[in-house]
Structure prediction request, 122 residues.
Amino acid sequence: MPSLDKFSVQQVYWSAFGIPAYDELTVPEDAKMPYLTYQKANGSLGGVMNVSASVYYKGTSWNAIIQEVNHIEKFVDRQVFFNGGILKVRKPISHFAQPMDEPSDKKIRRMVLTVEMEFLSA
Prediction:
């Protein structure tokens, strides 16, 4: 297995939910929904950061995306090892998921997720 750094371990974390995950700055033009985008972040021990991700679905109903977010919520609190430490991710006490509209396409369903992320490393 290749060595994971602080940035690549975030890809491993967000990809574990069963839908394609992309750094929000590098979503392929041909990406098919559903997919997830996430903010990349960097920090160190004691530096808890609020980081967001978005889940995207296309359709006329919110049911599928709500089910997906409920699934993610059950497994969001995790620790993932990387070269030099551990990425610790927690669901915040107050404000995990929020639906958003997409003015460019009324059929896009988006849920913004907020997590607390900390690197247990130098």
Remarks:
- The mean pLDDT is 93.
